[in-house]
Specification:
The complex is a heterotrimer of chains A (about 350), B (about 160) and C (about 475). Chain A is mostly helical. Chain B is mainly α and about 160 residues long. In chain B, helix 1 crosses helix 2, helix 6 packs across helix 7 and helix 6 runs parallel beside helix 9. Chain C has two domains: about 220 residues, 3-Layer(aba) Sandwich (Rossmann fold); about 130 residues, Rossmann fold (3-Layer(aba) Sandwich). Helix content of chain C is about 40%, strand content about 15%. Chain C is globular, with a radius of gyration of 22 Å. The chains are: A mainly alpha (about 350), B mainly alpha (about 160), C alpha/beta (about 475). Chains A and C meet through helix 3, strand 4, helix 12 and helix 13 of A and helix 1, strand 2, helix 3, helix 4 and helix 15 of C.
Chain lengths: ~350, ~160, ~475
């Protein structure tokens, strides 16, 4: 009843091809942006910013990046942790060695370094696909772990290998309070989401989707696999690299090489799978789910008044987490994005059943 | 301090014997028994196998059981020598490069792949490790698998996979 | 809706749950003290709710899961049980009861940060003091603590240069840092060879955990290696430390005279078993104090006899242990097993808690007998003055040492003893060995100055 398109006529091709052609959709997105930029900073407290919003936003960026690679282009990649590490360390090195550079530029340069690494390690995708590619990217993950741990130049010769960074300062404006960090991350996420959405609706995105669906057929109709696959790796690594730089600078503040290990790669992959492959919204939903679930499970026994040892809570977390992932994949393999899509479709018909 | 040149521990010998027995059992299982042949048929092509009457769900159960049992044996052998803790699961991840090296369809390939990776890891750590600061064994297995994937994706003993469009 | 698949998934998850329940490590049963209920016995006044406005809140970062759990559990038990004892036996610190909450970190830095953020504001005045229990987390929290004004006690771990209170006013590596420990070990090796100069030409291998914790002693050891002309062989072991065969094959190849073990968690027990496998004499292996505890040597049992480690504190029982057994365990409020009370890591946790309690007591002498803020407790730690009589009164004779900190020295003690595993228990094998400050002080100063420069801090806030 509220979500009908009745009366919304498009009079130009451009209007018809808009990202949100339905007026109610635009209102919905505007409300979310308003909530995100105005309401949350007024209402939330520091812990909620630091532990909930900022990690979710940065992980959403990384999940969108990985979704471009895995969901839209079909190249399985278990190396996202490595790309985040490259982004973080590159941003750190640029900031340390060229102090005059704007920190935001350093983040982008971190993303570009991740792009270079991504293209290099995407070369195997031209030969192999699916499960084999996953093992190849796993090699990248472990190799990067070792590189940042062993080669002291990356950590500026600190004896412990642990890096500590100062708050981001742009033209005298220091991003040290949680609200400022949150707004910075949110702005970056919105900009990058717009970029991603436009990419997948354009020629490149269609090339990716064609490669995912049947790469031999795509090659036959003229989509060059080297461009399609390597551009997917490049763009995806850029997103994940910037997310990594943000994760290190804004969220962690101080990290050691193990902060970007295989568990992070698996987390981001789970976010993409649970959120929904091939969907931008899916990346965000998956990031929210995976980041908040452990916190929720941790606090649940306390809210319910059940007295449990911390070890038991931690183990329960793992069990329920694994169980939920299996449940999701069995019941709704297309992820949370599909559930959202079904909701919207039902809403269009509401209050009628069909 | 060190008596003799080569040191072979009793647990390692027992582990080798057990592994050998397991390989022989699995090889016989896959080559000679009906169920083994059914498993290989399903691996080749699910639909064709189903169409000739092989009950797929039953096959899945058998496959997972056998895989679980073999992993159990591996865990017990490792644990008896070095102790059991949950982080042993990270070692299991190394099975992926072993598979790639050996080829997916062959048990002998898995054994040979395992030997190459196991020995290669430790030897590379000792001989190449000191020049680059150590810790190489962490990624050596995977990089080796990556190299194989570039030049011989089917592994040493696997069948070449032909993609039909 | 696919009810069939749903039902099947639920059925399949039952084994998961069963397997998960079987994973619970031993008899650990520490409770988060948010509820005032207990299984047996009266807990009135012993477990205090976090929301109590008259209680001092102490956060506890612990790890009872993961590869470091066997070592993390006794420490957490010792820590929390001492706090409970103070509530039970003394009625709190000068009448102010202690409320605490445990947060599971799994030894992961990211989770430690999340626990820090969650716990720092709890209680009427916020967290009194943090004990990160992990060097990696210490590095991360060191950045945040000055902003939030909460002190850190990093007893026996953390940044070695943080003993310089001028640059690190909020860090207190009381009773020793890794440079101190490494120096004590090198000095001991010199002693048994008839002098540090006799180390010339010897080979010392360092098997270390590839993390900030394991890398900490390397600068000191390299300096000593260049001073006394011995060869230092570095053998990193990746987390979690279960795969060490190549490190020990390397040792068999290089045949070093001594091996220093810098591990934590399952890495230690694996190391000793691997050492047995390559027939390296255990009495030539020396561990850091985190590698010298019962969980590390019991799995190897008789094979570990002769292994020595530098120790902050060894196993054994004093009056306070008897109090814990009678006030807590006899009332059914114990967290672990009775046999665990008095083991090495339990005593480490106990000592850590004793430092916290005494700091709060010292701070209360200035600021009054009420819940204090982190800043006030920091004053208390820096002005700690614990003498042998205080230790006797506390019932900790032999299990705590006199502490007298100052602004420039947050470490207090620069000596340690070595203890040796004899198959049944740990016994002290040497007398007190001091670290050489002539070597350490310049290193601490230069490392602290570098940090101060990078962080934009004043190089020596002590003079002001």
């Amino acid at each position: 009843m509220f979500y009908r398109e009745a009366g919304q006529f498009k009079t130009s091709y451009k209007a018809d091809q808009a990202v949100f052609p339905i007026f109610q959709d635009r209102i919905f997105v505007a409300i979310w942006l308003f909530l995100g930029f105005v309401v949350v900073p007024m209402l939330a407290n520091e812990y909620v910013f630091r532990a909930i919003f900022i990690p979710v936003i940065i992980m959403a960026l990384a999940a969108i990046g990985l979704n471009l690679l895995v969901g839209y282009c079909g190249q399985v990649s278990l190396g996202s942790g490595a790309f985040m590490a490259v982004g973080a360390y590159a941003a750190y090195n640029f900031m340390i060695r060229i102090p005059e550079l704007n920190p935001l530029i350093c983040f982008l340069l971190g993303g570009l370094s991740a792009t270079v690494v991504g293209v290099i390690f995407g070369i195997p995708s031209l030969r192999i696909k699916g499960f084999y590619l996953a093992v190849a990217t796993l090699a990248l993950q472990f190799f990067t772990d070792w590189t940042f741990s062993r080669i002291d130049w990356f950590t500026n010769y600190t004896p412990s290998g642990s890096i500590a960074v100062q708050p981001v300062e742009v033209w005298g404006f220091v991003f040290d309070s949680p609200i400022r960090k949150y707004l910075l991350c949110l702005t970056v996420l919105v900009i990058f989401t717009v970029i991603a959405k436009n990419l997948v609706r354009g020629r490149i995105g269609r090339a990716w989707m064609a490669t995912r669906d049947m790469d031999v057929a795509a090659e036959i109709i003229g989509i060059r696999p080297i461009y399609a696959k390597l551009s997917a790796f490049a763009v995806s690594s850029f997103f994940i690299g910037v997310a990594g730089a943000l994760w290190a600078y804004v969220h962690l503040g101080s990290w050691e090489p193990l902060a970007f290990d295989i568990n992070l790669s698996f987390s981001i992959l789970f976010m993409v799978i649970i959120g929904g492959l091939g969907s931008i919204v899916g990346g965000m939903l998956g990031a929210t789910f995976i980041t908040l679930l452990p916190l929720f499970l941790n606090q649940l026994p306390i809210w319910l008044g059940i007295n449990m040892s911390t070890a038991m809570v931690s183990h329960l977390e793992y069990m329920i987490f694994g169980g939920l992932i299996i449940f999701f994949l069995a019941v709704e393999p297309l992820g949370l994005a599909r559930i959202w899509q079904i909701t919207k479709e039902k809403l269009r018909l509401w209050p009628f059943p069909h | 301090m060190f008596d003799g040149g080569v040191l072979v521990a009793k647990e390692d010998l027992v582990a080798t014997v057990i592994a050998g027995l397991l390989v022989v059992t699995l090889a016989i299982f896959f080559q000679k028994t009906r169920i083994g042949r059914a498993l290989r048929a399903v691996a080749d092509d699910h639909q064709a196998a189903q169409s000739i009457g092989i009950p797929l769900n039953y096959i899945w159960v058998i496959v997972w059981t056998v895989a679980g049992l073999v992993a159990l044996v591996a865990g017990v052998i490792w644990g008896s020598k070095l102790g059991v803790q949950f982080s042993l699961s990270l070692i299991a991840l190394k099975a992926l490069p072993v598979l790639i090296l050996g080829g997916f369809e062959s048990v002998l390939g898995a054994v040979i792949g395992g030997l190459i990776i196991g020995a290669g890891e430790k030897l590379s750590e000792i001989y190449i490790g000191p020049y680059v600061g150590g810790g190489i064994e962490y990624w050596f297995a995977y990089m080796l698998a990556l190299g194989f994937l570039m030049f011989r994706p089917q592994g040493l003993f696997g069948e070449v996979h032909i993609d039909r469009v | 809706m696919k009810y069939g698949t749903l039902l099947r998934t639920l059925l399949l998850s039952v084994p998961l749950v069963i397997a998960g329940c079987g994973q619970e490590d031993g008899a650990s049963d520490a409770t988060t003290s948010n509820e005032v209920t207990q299984s047996a016995g009266s807990s009135d006044g012993i477990i205090v709710d976090v929301s109590d406005p008259n209680a001092q809140f102490v956060p506890v970062l612990s790890y009872r899961t993961g590869p470091y759990a066997p070592n993390g559990m006794p420490v957490a038990n010792g820590f929390t049980e001492y706090l409970k004892l103070i509530n039970a036996r003394d009625g709190g610190i000068n009448g102010v009861k202690i409320s605490f909450e445990e947060c599971e970190t799994g030894y992961a830095t990211a989770r430690s940060i999340e626990c820090y953020e969650r716990l720092k504001g709890k209680g009427p005045t916020g967290a009194a003091v943090f004990n990160p229990m992990s060097t990696g987390a210490t590095f991360a929290i060191t950045e945040k603590a000055p902003v939030d004004k909460i002190p850190l006690i990093t007893m026996g771990y953390g940044r070695s240069e943080s003993r310089n209170g001028g640059v690190f006013p909020w860090n207190f590596p009381i009773y020793g840092t890794y440079w101190t420990a490494a120096d004590v070990l090198v000095t001991h090796l010199g002693d048994i060879n008839g002098g540090l100069d006799n180390l010339k030409g010897k080979k010392i291998a360092l098997v270390y955990h590839d993390s900030p914790f394991g890398k900490e002693p390397i600068p000191l050891l390299e300096k000593r290696a260049s001073m006394h002309d011995f060869e230092l062989i570095k053998l990193p072991v990746t987390h979690p430390g279960v795969e060490q065969k190549s490190a020990w094959i390397n040792i068999r190849k290089e045949q070093p005279d001594y091996v220093l073990l810098w591990g934590w968690g399952v890495m230690n027990s694996t190391a000793i078993k691997e050492a047995t496998g390559v027939r390296y004499p255990r009495d030539q292996i020396y561990g850091i104090w985190w590698a010298g505890a019962e969980p590390d040597v019991r799995p190897a049992a008789a094979d570990a006899v002769g292994y020595q480690a530098v120790s902050m504190i060894s196993s054994g029982q004093a009056q306070v242990h008897k109090d814990i057994l009678s006030y807590l365990y006899d009332a059914g409020l114990g967290s672990g097993e009775r046999a665990g009370v008095g083991e090495v890591l339990y005593n480490v946790g106990l000592l850590n808690a004793a430092l916290v309690v005494e700091s709060i007591r010292t701070a209360q002498s200035k600021y009054g007998e009420k819940p204090l803020t982190g800043e006030q407790v920091r004053w208390g730690i820096e002005n700690l003055n614990i003498t042998e009589e205080n230790i006797q009164d506390l019932g900790l004779s032999g299990y705590m040492y006199p502490v007298n900190l100052s602004c420039s020295d947050h470490e207090g003690k620069r000596a340690a003893r070595l203890h040796r595993w004899n198959g049944e228990s740990w016994e002290y094998s040497t007398d007190w060995i001091s670290a050489d400050d002539a070597v350490l002080q310049p290193m601490v100063k230069s490392a602290a100055d570098t940090y101060a420069k990078e962080a934009g801090l004043p190089a020596n806030a002590c003079e002001s």
